[in-house]
Amino acid sequence: MMCKIKAISAFCYILIALPFGILLMYLFNGFQRKIRHGLARTFLGIFRIRAYVSGSLDPTAQILIMNHQSFMDVIYFEAIHPNDLCWIAKRELGEYFLYGHALKAPKMILIDRESKRESVSLIKEAKDRLDRGRTLCIFPEGTRSQGGEKLLPFKNGAKILVEHFRLKVQPIILCNTRACLDVSAVSFSNSPFYIKYLPAFLPQGEQWYEHLKEQMQSEYSKMYLEVR
To answer: Which helix (H) or strand (E) holds 65?
Structure first.
């Protein structure tokens, strides 16, 4: 019952703060990052979000590649990352009225995974954001996982971007964010979650993406077992 009450409280905050934030982002284009940062930090403060962190965030990384379990993933990094983040998401998410404007106002990248021209559009949009000094954020699984022991198969979007622009990558492992906040189940236990920053690197060799998946799976499995 408490999880439901907390969830309703969190959703009320979002329903009040998000339209206000969207309006401000449209009106004050040059302050979009500060607006998002402020709203996300307020959420973390009000609900006393707790995260156990290992490793070090590298602000010079040009793309963050992370597994995805919960909307909490986005809120947390919008609150703590020093750079102007650009999230890469499914185009369908832009069709929801409120959430869609939350993505469109700050010019996040929305891609149609079913389109044959997806990679062309992705590269064009990514170049614009990189030229503006933004840090790309991508969930290679392509969707939220159920928080089980295995990561979902990786899509090729991250690989295409990294190789095309020769980006510096920072892999990030998240565990238990779904247990903390599960929007689909209307559950907000506010339990602590875990984040591990792996060292940032410039990819070398043809198999770097496969090796990255193996490394992230290995680190996630260790974290998953420790949490359990």
So the answer is: strand 63-66
Q: Classify 49 as helix, strand or coil.
A: coil
Per residue in 60-78, pLDDT (tens digit) is: 999 999 999 999 999 999 9
Alpha carbon distance 86, 12 (integer Å) = 25
pLDDT in tens, 136-184: 999 999 888 888 889 999 999 999 999 999 999 999 999 999 999 888 7
What is the C-alpha to C-alpha distance for residues 43 and 76, in angstroms, rounded to an integer? 9
User: Which of 98, 128, 124, 129 lies closest to 111, judged by CA?
Assistant: 124
SS (H, E, C) 149-187: CCCCCCCCHHHHHHHHHCCCEEEEEEECHHHHEECCCCE
**Distance set, CA 194 to CA 68, 90, 177, 187, 191 (Å):** 12, 25, 8, 18, 10
Q: Which residues contact 20 (CB under 8 A, 6 or more apart)?
A: none
Strands 181-182 and 187-188: antiparallel
Q: What is the pTM of this model?
A: 0.94
Helix (H, G, I), strand (E, B) or coil at 16: helix
Q: Which residues make Cβ contacts (< 8 Å) with residue 24, sequence separation at least 6?
A: 31, 35
Rounded CA separation 176/179 (Å): 5
For residues 89 and 29, what is the distance between their CA atoms, to the nearest angstrom? 21
Alpha helices in the chain (DSSP H): 2-27, 32-46, 72-80, 97-104, 118-131, 157-165, 177-180, 208-227
